[in-house]
């Protein structure tokens, strides 16, 4: 028996109708920094099962920032890369904040 998984390939999953435009930059940053491996509402990679739109709703800002800025310190043995360390700390924090705000705001689609 074969299994068929349906995924949303439309960017509408990232920017659903009605999402405040203030989160569009965060969606773009999530796409750039996260969606090679992770998904938001079915859009993105498949290396991690949980959907970031749902998963992030359970995180505080501080916990999320630790996970994306220093993943191995939060989860020993983690293979997830941190947001690029070639950027300044100010820029890394800005990117992480934008992604967090977006993931908290984007509705979870079933």
Q: What level of helicity do the residues show? A: 40-55%
Beta-strand percentage?
A: under 5%
| Count of DSSP-assigned helices | 5
Strand order of the largest sheet: 1-2
Would you list the SSEs in sequence order as H and E? Answer: HEEHHHH
Distance between the termini: 24 Å
**Please, what is the average pLDDT?**
89
Whole-angstrom Rg: 14 Å
Query: How does the major sheet shape up?
Result: 2 strands, antiparallel
Low-confidence stretches: 4-8
Assembly level:
single chain
The count of β-strands is 2
Written account of the structure:
By secondary structure, the protein is mainly α. It is 40% helix and 4% strand. Strands 1-2 form a two-stranded antiparallel ribbon. Helix 1 packs across helix 5 and helix 3 crosses helix 5. The longest helix has 17 residues. About 5% of the residues have low confidence.
Topology:
Layout: H1 24-33, E1 39-40, E2 43-44, H2 52-55, H3 61-69, H4 71-74, H5 89-105
Antiparallel strand pairs: 1-2
Features:
globular, 110 residues, two-stranded antiparallel sheet
Brief summary of the model shown:
This protein has a two-stranded antiparallel ribbon with strand order 1-2.
């Amino acid at each position: 028996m074969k299994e068929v998984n349906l995924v949303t390939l439309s960017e509408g999953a990232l920017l659903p109708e009605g999402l405040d435009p203030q989160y569009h930059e965060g969606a773009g940053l999530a796409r750039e920094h996260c969606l090679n491996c992770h998904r938001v509402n079915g859009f993105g990679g498949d290396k991690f099962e949980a959907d970031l739109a749902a998963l992030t709703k359970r995180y505080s800002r501080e916990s999320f920032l630790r996970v994306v800025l220093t993943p191995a310190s939060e989860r020993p043995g983690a293979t997830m890369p941190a947001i690029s360390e070639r950027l300044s700390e100010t820029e890394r924090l800005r990117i992480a904040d934008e992604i967090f705000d977006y993931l908290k705001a984007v509705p979870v689609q079933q």
